[in-house]
């Protein structure tokens, strides 16, 4: 579904609107809370599937786009690990 984020996690599933920059920020905030509470989550947004998790400390521990060290969250799609900032641009 376009402009909606489907988020599944251990014990639940939710769908949030994701059509505006404000809604996307709310999606990212919600993801951050879910990952810290439940661990890995699956995200489906605009036909793309992502896994969002805490970094494991194992290589690769840098963002595939900008090269910055991965912080508290890693967005993974097609074997590419992105930092939250690059993921926000890629998820649009």
Distance between the termini: 13 Å
Which structural class fits the helix and strand makeup?
alpha+beta
Q: What sequence of helices (H) and strands (E) makes up the elements? A: EEHEEEEH
Report the sheet-strand fraction: 25-35%
Which stretches are low in confidence, meaning pLDDT under 50 for 5 or more residues running?
Answer: none
Helix content: 25-40%
Q: Count the beta strands.
A: 6
Question: What Rg is obtained from the alpha carbons, in whole angstroms?
Answer: 12 Å
Q: What integer is the average pLDDT?
A: 89
Tell me the number of helical segments per DSSP (H or I, 4 or more residues long). 2
Q: How many strands, which pairing sense, and closed or not: the largest β-sheet?
A: 6 strands, antiparallel
Shape: globular
Q: Strand order, biggest sheet?
A: 2-1-3-4-5-6
């Amino acid at each position: 579904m376009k402009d909606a984020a489907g988020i599944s996690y251990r014990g639940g599933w939710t769908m949030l609107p994701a059509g505006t920059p404000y809604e996307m920020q709310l999606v990212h905030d919600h993801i951050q809370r879910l990952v810290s509470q439940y661990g890995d989550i699956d995200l489906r947004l605009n036909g793309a599937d992502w896994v969002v998790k805490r970094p494991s400390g194992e290589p690769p521990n840098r963002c595939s786009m900008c090269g910055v060290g991965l912080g508290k969250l890693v967005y993974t799609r097609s074997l590419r690990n992105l930092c939250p900032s690059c993921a926000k641009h890629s998820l649009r």
